[in-house]
Fold this sequence. Notes:
6-stranded mixed β-barrel, globular, single chain, binds ligand MGD, binds iron/sulfur cluster, binds molybdenum atom, 28 strands, alpha/beta
Amino acid sequence: MIRRRSTCSLCEACCACLIDIQDDEIVRVRPDPEDPLAKGYICAKGAAIPEYEADPDRLRQPMVRVDGELRPASWESAFELIQARLPTILEQHGGNAVAIYSGNGAGRSSDFSEISHLLSAIGTRNYYTSGTLDQIPFFAVNALLFGNEYSAPIPDLDRCKLLWILGANPSESNGSMVTAPGIVGRLARIRKEGGKVVVFDPRRTGTARRATEYHAITPSGDAAFLAAVAHVLLEAGPAKSNALELCGDITALKAELEKFTPETCSAACGIDAGEIRRLALELRDTNAAAVYGRMGTTTQQFSSLTCWLIALVNILAGNLDAPGGAMFTKPVSSQANTYGQPGIGRGAQSRMGRWRSRVRKAPEMFGELPVSCLPEEMTTPGQDQVRALITFGANPVVSNPHPDRMAGLLQNLELFISFDIYVTESNRFADVIFPSPPRLARHQFEEYFYKFAVRNYARYTPAFRELKEGESSDRETILRLAAIAKGDGWAVDIDAVEEATLEDLVCNEIRRRGSPLKDRDPLDIVAQLRVLPPHERRIDLGIRVGPYGDAFGTRKGLSLQDLKDQPTGVDLGALAPRLPEILRTPSGQIEIAQEFAMIELGRLSNWIKGERPRFVLVGRRQLRSLNSAMRNIRRLQHNTRSCKLTINTQDADELGIGELDLACVSNKNGSITVEVELSDDIAPGVVSLPHGWGGPGLEGFQEVAATEAGVNVNYLTDPEAVDPLTGTVQLNGIAVDIARAGVA
Ligand SMILES: Nc1nc2c(c(=O)[nH]1)N[C@H]1C(S)=C(S)[C@@H](COP(=O)(O)OP(=O)(O)OC[C@H]3O[C@@H](n4cnc5c(=O)[nH]c(N)nc54)[C@H](O)[C@@H]3O)O[C@H]1N2
Ligand SMILES: Nc1nc2c(c(=O)[nH]1)N[C@H]1C(S)=C(S)[C@@H](COP(=O)(O)OP(=O)(O)OC[C@H]3O[C@@H](n4cnc5c(=O)[nH]c(N)nc54)[C@H](O)[C@@H]3O)O[C@H]1N2
Ligand code: SF4
Ligand SMILES: [Mo]
């Protein structure tokens, strides 16, 4: 038996683990106690990796549609099918006829970043990701305020003394947009040392139960609450030195927030006016305090406004960029806010709205269009209509509104290619499915999630073994598809492609404004990188030109080799203040006075006065599942992982619904019937249903998941109900009607 260090990488926590390997199979996974970031923690999903890898339903070779049926096939025949169709579509209809959609599974593959080759080879503007069902409002606000979407203030959890958590449940999700393995232990530390954790959620979650204080906030009431908090803070004035000095003139903003008194906002958010004042002043008067929000703040009725208000409150209370407050990570690589001239830049506008979607004219954000536009781009005839789709680790039938419509659209595509490790509700309609290789044959570098880590940190795990006959890396598959799109054919000499890719990579870096390689000989850099396997070249380059890098020998610093030499991970220290250096805005200031926010405050004002539906639906994560993935692992089946509608006990009483009854949940979008669970932990008027369940169509493909398919909450979500700034779908706070529908 061999023991290796690895990173779990199933979710954003990036837990460090020790894996035991026997005969090329993973037999056991345990926490790695020596990792400097992780706190010796893994969850049930991490421990289930052996079963996940060994699952007989997992795809181990490509699937190709033959005579209407998906069948296991060779890589050659899969590429041949694509070669027979993709060039014709591109020729007749152009690159925009092919859409690419990457989902949460993309984060599982360290090769995913190569998708940029495919995007440029196809030349499509139709790029979609699960980000517009998730965190893009947060990114948009970061970009507008600080000049880059990844300039993301995250709570400095290990030093924080007061933490507000809005719309996040790390005790199930293990943290999101904050990379903090063992996050529950980290939150417990705050309380143990006399600090406070305050949770705002319509449901008394596991996180809320472990908190010092819990407030049952009204769904989508966060903006009203935070506007009132901002009002109090503006009235009280700053208590500590703060980032406010970098915000320029805030007179207009102050005037706009004048009317959002705690008294005006209290009923709409469900928090007493006196409490709002106390909470606001406590935030101001505590050193090391942070406000953090997640899914419940980014996918609701006021998503971007709420993100903006969180940033504003962190600024006004003097907690932005202060140790223990909301701070910015300085990761090892690929972080635009470490490039170029510090403190000033082109800002977000240069990467937002460069093009618009064809049908509803939604602006692009950082290279992608809102996924809420995809259905209409597929159905509306005309030049650039989407006729072909490539999904990467996405299950859109489960994760998007209108599951049946999405399924129908996928079924009617002229070409549908999926990268996935299972046949799912979505890719059962694909023409070709390409499986990622087993974990042991993959390298791991969680570059994306290190941007949000609570320490400056990086860990690299090389693949444990070479690819075997019949396996292919996602990298090679992507490059072969790109070759088809370019007209070179899939059977290109992949070494020659890699050589050209390497040269492009180096030349682009040397050309980049502010690159430490300016004036260097590209051939010298290419020669230094060529000794590495192709998948390591971009990683090494990124580290070496990054803020800690050796710039290929011109300064003392890191290269990928240093990460390899330290398999427990390289610790680059606690988060350090980065203002104003981190700014990349045209003004060199924090551009807090955003026009969109002023407009949205007007909408909020009307909402505060408006009528409320009798019931609203919110979502939730479950520890033993991962969106729609991992449902096929028997070991993870457990009664805490089941698909039930949580309803307040008194509400249920009024509706005549008892435990084990079925309820019909409906609205103008659709209706579902689901088993209920009664609870005093959910606010009256709110019901909660987990996301990631669904079916149909898993029979014969995912045996365990098919027997316990649950219901898909997205029958109730509305593709038209989107965040005005970003087009992000409202997945929480949805008006529904509830009625008893018999016994389960
Ligand atoms: N109503 C409602 N809808 C939601 C949400 C909600 O809370 N409520 N949440 C939204 C959010 S936050 C997100 S992120 C999306 C998620 O929705 P999607 O982005 O569609 O992601 P998943 O459901 O996680 O599906 C991931 C897919 O990736 C595959 N996969 C796993 N590992 C690998 C791998 O190594 N390689 C490849 N190629 N594929 C792999 C899995 O088998 C699975 O099919 O859903 C969104 N939709
Ligand atoms: N085990 C597990 N871990 C996961 C995932 C998973 O499926 N399973 N998914 C991963 C993904 S893709 C993501 S994006 C993250 C999400 O990570 P989190 O955001 O931490 O997880 P959620 O359970 O979606 O938490 C959202 C909370 O918001 C509350 N809420 C709903 N509406 C509102 C509102 O209007 N205001 C407030 N204040 N609260 C509201 C809900 O009740 C819920 O408790 O988790 C990641 N980690
Ligand atoms: S929390 Fe669980 S699933 Fe997420 S990285 Fe850690 S062990 Fe893996
Ligand atoms: Mo997500």
